[in-house]
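Re: your question from the hallway

Yes, I did run it. Sequences:
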Amino acid sequence: MKRRDFLKTSVYAATAMTFLPDKSFLHGQSTIPDLVVVKDGTPESMVRKAVEELGGMSRFVSRGDVVVLKANISWDRAPAQAATTNPDVVAEVVRLCIDAGAKKVKVFDRTLNEPRRCYKRSGIEKAAKEAGAEVQHILERKFKKVKFPNGELIKSWELYRDVLEADRIINIPIAKHHSIGGISLGMKNFMGFLGGNRGKFHRDFDVKIVDLNTKVKADLTILDAYRMLLRNGPSGGNLADVELKKIVVAGIDPVAMDSYGATLFGLQAGRIQFMQNAYQRGLGQFDLTKLSIKTFTLVS
Amino acid sequence: MQLARRISQIVFLLFFFVLFFLATYPLTSKIPVDFFLRMDPLLGLSSTLAGRALFIKIIPPLVLLLLSLVVGRFFCGWICPMGTTIDGFDNTVRTKKKKEKTSNHLKWIKFSILVVVVVAALMSVQLAGFVDPIPLFTRTVVTVLYPLFVWAIDGFMGFMMSISFLEEPIFRLNESLRGIILPINISYFRQSVFIAIIFIVILGLGYYHRRFWCRNLCPLGALLGIFSKFRWYRRRVSDACTDCGVCRKICRMDAIAPDFRNTDQVECISCMDCIAVCPVNAVSFGFTKSRESVKVDYNRRRLLTAGTTGLFTIGLLKIGFSKPSLKGKVVRPPGAFEEPVFLDRCIRCGECIRVCSTSGVGLQYATLESGWEGIWTPILLPKVGYCEYNCNMCGQVCPTGAIKSIPLEERQKIKMGTAHFDKTRCIPWYYGENCMVCEEHCPLPDKAIKFREEETVTIDGKETTVLLPYVDESLCIGCGICVNRCPVEGERGIFLTNADEERWID
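Structure:
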């Protein structure tokens, strides 16, 4: 199913539902929550459970889709250093996409250290390839300057061609401390799709990061908090700054996802400027009390 | 035999390029990628004399020298990648009909160059790297030939991609070639034009006569020639010879005497062309007891002149205004020996620059930053590229040990220099706005860039608090990634010097 068909069907379904006399089932026990939190499993089992509780991967990926996964492969760091997304999480998402009938699953990131080193040491290249994904290095030529029609400060920027052409985008950030953003979660993770001088993004970061997220939207976000980098982020390097949390969160609303991610660091989204901006500009809900959140603890 | 030689030349040239492509991350090649440099006796001699230390890797050059004693200058004719390139150029560009010229009046020059190099080495100055064909060719491949190749392929792909139906297949082709014959990221090198000019001149001299460089200029050829003078394996001419003179006419080294029977053992590179052209099959190669040789045109006066010239050249280099304390921006790769030893050992081959271009791209050829003596030595230019924290490849490929090969954990503690903030450029310091790109990239587990929160006034006069970055100089190792990634355009908000650098001492 193509994105357009999916949207059409969704619109029909939504329209149909408004005519239904009893809408209570939409809020009842049987409905799909906004966020699913899974704890204490292996990375794979937690991802599987989270996606299943969100309605299964077939809700997000249709047969024949080209899916882009945005894992964080920024740094030449090992998985234990928690500066890059857990490779087992990435691999499981790849498998789920392929099982759902994806034609192609692409994994790439514009890295900040030497690309081959990052792909290798993070373990993501190997894990994702074995799971059946296409793992390629960024090709400078594939960046295309595009307009950000809803951007406040960023009116246009170089975006990766594969992202623009993807049927589905799944964001798989790792929960990390970030010295200025406070924390680096899903919305920040999309910076890996950008070309050009990204350093410039850090001035007025709180506005620009929202600008980016008005242009690139994930169909699904899966937050890897299996290990969390609590200090000296985003590149870390010190094992003492890493905590084994064994949490995976999944959801559609990018602001809700980041907002929940913030609570893992003991922070409140209401105090984080970019999340507020994102809410005000209609990207999603940061107020967790207004969301349905389901938590599962896996017994291992 | 002529065919065997051609095959050998092509195989070794291909081998040279294979090693070149292997000189990249992850550097797992079993054969040392600096194979050709390591077997070069002139480099061995010069670095040993200049560096005042016997090479551990001295065995391969000695083998080559001993082989030359027996079979002569076969290296030039059968192995040398420079010689092969010159042959290729001579054969394709030179008009075939052109009469070969003799060049006895120029052959002495290479011996003079050799003497200058050796005298310089004795005075502890490394000149071999500039004139020895192996580092010369390596340098040319690294900074000229390969970048040109990449530029051409990349440009061609860019052109093809503009044809819409070819876009997708070309992208796929581009992706599959990368990391094999195309680099992951295209890098550029300083001094390319200058190095190219030297190479073009060397090839262009072939217009005058074939193998001009090898006959008249190459100091490695001179050294091997001296060892070849009393070789056992040599050209023999039987009585069948009809004095037709074809062999002398086609000899690329002008090594055959006017009587067509005697051979200049110093010059003959055993290319076997004379066997192939002889109409009566009178020429052969084999072991003989004869020790006769043609007299070579070099005399004591010329050698003395060369020696004296060498001495004054070195004097000029040494009186150059190049106090180390004035070379604050000269940051050397991690594990580089203390400057005098480093300068003595570095042969400017560019192996370190090659591997670095596949990783952090930080190493570039120096121009005059470290004086005339330091021309073409590697320096870290953080605005161009940075030193990758998890990389120690430059030390691994250095053929002369000018950069020590150091285990990764140890190398990560070596201080190459120190970063300093330019408070008139840095965003938090000057504009009063938060920025953390330098800190974000700092690879050290404890971050050599730290913040302190301070009240400040922004550039338009508003009072605010800002996180001001500062360098913890005890932690900073001077890798330069902060400079490289600083978003401030023009001059960066942070710069790198060699302050407190730790250089290797044996």
